[in-house]
Amino acid sequence: MTMPREESNRAIITVIGRDQIGIIAWVSGRLAECQVNVLDISQTILDEFFTMIMIVDLEPATIEIDGLAQTLEQEGNEKGLQVKVQHEDIFRFMHRI
Hints:
By secondary structure, this protein is of the alpha+beta class. It has 3 helices and 4 strands. The longest helix is centred in the last third of the chain and has 14 residues, at 65-78. It is globular and about 35 Å long.
């Protein structure tokens, strides 16, 4: 018998685009402004493309996930970046086998 899993307060943030100065500083700065805590981060440059995945804690956040996603996606688009914010539970559901 499996026990029901508690809903997570974490999100997965992905950022992809041409490498440019300040991407990590921009994303982490916007998260800090909203009291979103970065739990883990992985980034690399593939050829000239920047890729980053972050796991963040939404528990202390001063913004809802939808607002955070809209802000980061819109500002990222203006910077030529594709930014996606997904709740961890949705991400896990979409990527299960």
